[in-house]
Amino acid sequence: MATYEFTVSVRTQYLPEQSDPERTNFVFTYSITIKNTGTVPAQLISRHWVITDANNHVEEVRGLGVVGHQPLLQPNEQFEYTSGTALQTQQGSMTGEYFCVAEDGHQFEVKIPEFVLSLPRTLH
């Protein structure tokens, strides 16, 4: 029986050298690992992000692929990439989904679990 599943893990980092706190500009990177944990080869086609800062300002981003790639992942294969975003607050969060198409034509979405963007030592 075919299963269609990717797992997503995230690591984040604050970039003080690219940030300007006096102008309320805080830059973060996020490194994502996407692993095909299903039984059918599948390709990541597009992404949808919901980025929320500490003032509840929401920005949505949609686009094809990730960092210029639309990786085709075999079962147990993974793809890692790093991207970034800027917030007007010291903390925020991101969540979203990837739209994927399996080799057999089945379409499915992969939920990206919400993760926090925060300056070091600012969360309690």
TrEMBL record:
Domain ApaG: 1-124
InterPro entries membership: ApaG-like (IPR050718), ApaG_domain (IPR007474), ApaG_sf (IPR036767), Uncharacterised_ApaG (IPR023065)
SUPFAM superfamilies: ApaG-like
Gene3D superfamilies, alphabetized: ApaG domain
Signal peptide (from-to): none
Superkingdom classification of source: Bacteria
Name of a matching Pfam family: DUF525
HAMAP family, per the entry: ApaG
Cross-referenced NCBIfam families: PRK05461.1
Name of the protein: Protein ApaG
Recorded name of the encoding gene: apaG
